[in-house]
Design a protein that fits this description.
The complex is a heterodimer of chains A (302) and B (429). Chain A is built from 13 helices and two strands, in the order ααββααααααααααα. Chain A has 302 residues and is an all-alpha fold. With 429 residues, chain B is α/β, with parallel strands linked by helices. In chain B, helix 16 runs antiparallel to helix 17. Chain B starts with a strand and ends with a helix. The chains are: A mainly alpha (302), B alpha/beta (429).
Chain lengths: 302, 429
């Protein structure tokens, strides 16, 4: 290729930034903005999808009114909140002490230990679900075998009975995201200056006092970040309950989170308008709770 | 007596079939010689295999028209078809659909009305098993599909377990009450459960005694029917099964379920005729010869799934005539229909094939019982029900309320009233 033709290909500095940023913007527009706007549009329509796009019919706020009066929407929201709290809170309550322990006690083995905790986070959800559905299996599962051997308990129908499904899911979510939070807190721990601890030691502060008065306050920004991620992730929980309950939400829908429910509304019950309205209502809930988290941390941190 | 397509069973049936024949996804043949036309058929296992097996016959009739088979797994296929119909993009010329999806897709306007010219499907109506053909009619009277295979319901039972309890087939089938009473004796004598899950008893009993065209959960005007006597009876029977500890509380297609068949802890199953093929190939091949089939108790006749072909309304217009010819070949050619029955356990919807000697042949897995005669008889006595837009949701609600009755002792009348209230809110959406 001649020098001249290369020159013709050269971008003018005026356009270069836009060209370089365009791949992201294009993908974001197609896979981010468009679906958002489309679902907002759908939330105000009644639509039989197999009739084609022109079969939509404007129904105003009817879908929202339906969603707010729908027992199953509220049920799924309660399930979601329960799971978010029961699977989310222990993640942080365990991850912080664990991170401190790893930070202070491991030197050479540290990366290996962290890696072991992090592994569930990068494992495919499908593999996790297959593994846990056999672990939780009623007659042939290891969990029941262990409970029977150690505590002499009768076999528990973990994934079949309504009252057991949520704890089983919460445990898996906890197990899966613990390592992620440990990594977050380890990173934060490394930024706390050592002199603080040295000074505290000289003043006669014990390990517990150091943890309470130095480590925790310094971790606060990261706790805020981690809790925010847990709140958002917890409220959008979908994969684990979906796969563990065969995509149906389990007995008495007790494993049916809001995300699972609105997927089912659209693809099983053929109600795309209702599902879109619910997804926007869920968005409002996520936004409000994130804002509340933010406020809670700001007040204490100030 | 009615068309019964438990979604879960149907899904898993296809998934199971997929597991059995994970054969060539990409075996759809080389692209046609240039210049020729090409038809696209979208299908799921094992209908894709059946279409491929028919291609040599097609080429003899239309050497210039190639057929491309696009296969996806069962659930993916139907999701892809929903998307294709909703956007009118990438529509195949011929679409294979499982029975429950025919009911669902027929609610909209996405499928071609085959009762109109040039198809005039009405003129071949009497060549199919009646209920299967009836099922292709939607509320507006359009015919949206053509049946190709069906799943007559059947009662599978273990002769050895029955013998140990001193029972015979005649003790199981006279009535549902007799079936449960036999279960009590089987449990006492052998420790085996009568059935995998009490829900399956409910699923059939709510479908018994329906008049042709009567809705299952809703009537024509979307009035909710779940407090009818058939629901009360179904719930009472299921509760009795659970109270007497006659069900293993396992879900179909789970590991526990398959183990139950292998180890002989499940004495009977209420299922589709195709289940025999599944049992023989992978679920419990070791139990060959121990099983027999009978008609469902109380002479109940229901269909478990089935496959259909349809033409999308917005498919390329110039291809539709050819697409119809392909559907005619696939559904009306007795040799192809029989070949599909022999190779893939696809029970033919084409009545003409039912006179073939193959129907009288013994089935080895069933101890050489000529079981296909029984299923042929059942197929003719099944009636179709009208699918309502909220049928899937109603399935879920009724299943949940029965769980509440079985697991938490909820009162049956309260449970059905709660179900009615939930369904009434959706009936007109």
């Amino acid at each position: 290729m001649s020098r001249r033709s290369l020159a013709a290909l050269r971008l003018s500095p005026r356009w270069a930034p836009y060209v370089f940023i365009s791949p992201f913007l294009l993908l974001f527009a197609v896979f981010g903005v468009f679906p958002l706007l489309f679902s907002l549009h759908l939330a105000f329509q009644s639509w039989e999808p197999t009739s084609g796009l022109d079969a939509m019919e404007f129904v105003g706020l009817e879908n929202f009114a339906f969603a707010l009066q729908d027992e199953w929407f509220w049920k799924s929201l309660k399930n979601t909140l329960w799971l978010a709290v029961v699977s989310g809170a222990p993640q942080h309550l365990v991850a912080i002490p664990l991170a401190v322990f790893i930070h202070t006690s491991f030197k050479r083995l540290r990366d290996g230990v962290v890696g072991a905790y992090f592994l569930p986070y990068i494992t495919s959800t499908v593999a996790i679900a297959i593994m846990f559905s056999s672990l939780f299996s009623k007659d042939f599962g290891l969990v029941n075998a262990a409970l029977q051997a150690v505590l002499g308990m009768e076999h528990v129908d973990w994934l079949g009975r309504a009252e057991n499904i949520k704890p089983a899911i919460a445990f898996i979510v906890f197990w899966r995201y613990l390592g992620f939070n440990v990594v977050l807190y380890l990173a934060a721990l490394q930024t706390i200056p050592r002199d603080l601890y040295e000074a505290a030691t000289m003043d006669g502060a014990g390990r517990w006092q150091q943890f309470w008065h130095i480590t925790l306050p310094n971790l606060k920004p990261m706790i805020f970040f981690g809790v925010t991620l847990s709140v958002i992730g917890g409220l959008q929980l979908f994969e684990e309950p979906f796969i563990l309950t065969g995509g149906r939400g389990g007995a008495d829908q007790s494993g049916m989170t809001s995300a699972v429910y609105l997927y089912r509304m659209a693809f099983d019950f053929n109600d795309f308008g209702g599902a879109s309205a619910m997804s926007w209502l869920l968005f409002v809930v996520v936004a409000v709770l994130t804002w509340l988290t933010n406020r809670a941390f700001r007040q204490k941190g100030a | 007596m009615t068309q019964f397509t438990p979604r879960e069973a149907a899904v898993n049936r296809r998934q199971a079939m997929l597991a059995v024949t994970a054969a060539g996804l990409s075996a759809s043949g080389p692209l046609a010689a240039s210049g020729g036309r090409r038809l696209t058929v979208a299908a799921f296992p094992l209908v894709d295999e059946i279409v491929r097996a028919a291609l040599p016959s097609w080429r003899r009739l239309h050497p210039a028209v190639d057929v491309q088979v696009v296969s996806r797994q069962y659930a993916d296929h139907h999701t892809a078809m929903t998307t294709a119909l909703s956007t009118s993009v990438h529509l195949p010329d011929v679409m294979a659909l499982e029975a429950s999806y025919v009911g669902r897709f027929s609610q909209g306007w996405g499928l071609e009305d085959l009762s109109q010219a040039p198809y005039n499907v009405g003129r071949i109506a009497d060549r199919f098993v009646p209920y299967a053909f009836d099922q292709t009619r939607n509320r507006r009277g359009a015919r949206v599909a053509v049946p190709t295979d069906i799943g007559p319901g059947t009662l599978l039972y273990r002769t050895d377990l029955l013998a140990r309890a001193g029972l015979s087939e005649a003790d199981l089938t006279p009535s549902w009450e007799a079936y449960v009473a036999a279960g009590v004796k089987i449990k006492a004598a052998t420790g085996a459960y009568l059935i995998g899950n009490a829900q399956s008893v409910k699923d059939i009993v709510i479908r018994s005694g329906l008049r042709p065209g009567e809705g299952l959960y809703f009537d024509k005007d979307s009035k909710v029917l779940v407090e009818a006597p058939r629901f009360r009876r179904a719930f009472e029977l299921a509760r009795e099964v659970r109270r007497r500890k006659l069900d293993a509380k396992v879900n179909a297609w789970s590991n526990e379920w398959a183990e139950g068949f292998r180890r002989g802890t499940l004495a009977t199953d209420l299922t589709g005729a195709w289940m025999v093929g599944q049992m023989a190939t992978w679920v419990a091949p070791g139990t060959k010869g121990l099983w027999r089939v009978a008609q469902l108790p109380e002479n109940t006749f229901v269909g478990y799934g089935g496959s259909f072909y349809a033409i999308p309304r917005r498919a390329q217009p110039e291809q539709k005539a050819l697409a119809w010819q392909l559907i005619e070949l696939l559904t009306l050619d007795p040799a192809l229909q029989l070949a599909a029955f022999k190779a893939q356990d696809a029970f033919p919807a084409l009545l003409q094939t039912h006179q073939d000697p193959f129907f009288d042949e013994p089935v080895a897995f069933l101890g050489d019982q000529p079981a296909r005669r029984l299923w042929r008889e059942a197929a003719r006595r099944i009636t179709a029900t009208q699918v309502h837009k909220q049928t899937n949701f109603a399935d879920e609600v009724i299943g949940t309320e029965l769980d509440n009755v079985l697991d938490h002792g909820k009162d049956i009348a309260t449970a059905l009233a709660d179900a009615r209230r939930l369904l009434e809110r959706r009936a007109h959406r």
